[in-house]
Amino acid sequence: MLEIFERRNLLQTEANPGIQFDYVVTLxxxxxxxxxxxxxxLSLRYVPDRLLLKSDCLATYFQEIGTITFDNLEQxxxxxxxxxxxxxxxxxxxxxxxxxxxxxxTVHHHEATLEDRQPRWHNTRLLERLERY
Length: 133
Prior knowledge:
The protein is of the alpha+beta class. The protein has helices at 4-9, 58-65, 73-88, 124-128; strands at 13-15, 25-31, 40-47, 51-53, 92-99, 110-117. It is built from four helices and six strands. The protein is globular.
């Protein structure tokens, strides 16, 4: 398992070609690893500021995530959100981690959704047009 800075360095970025615009980037991936958390679908939506995530780096990053032992889905979601937020520093970010398998006979669906934004960024009209989960 890599140290936090080594893991985050796996998330590669590039310059945002449209920094003057507010627009939403959406990425969806399937994650594997700790059986109590994965497999799960990750949905990442963000309004970039200066940086875009290079999607071709995600396979290596997710492979590393798969080696980490998590106590629960929420712990995995928080770690992923902190990594993406730290490396991208987006204007707005929303991440959903949706577990494919039932936790037990009572809970058949389990997901965690996290959101953050820069303090002075507001574009309600853009966010209202997004498809709801």
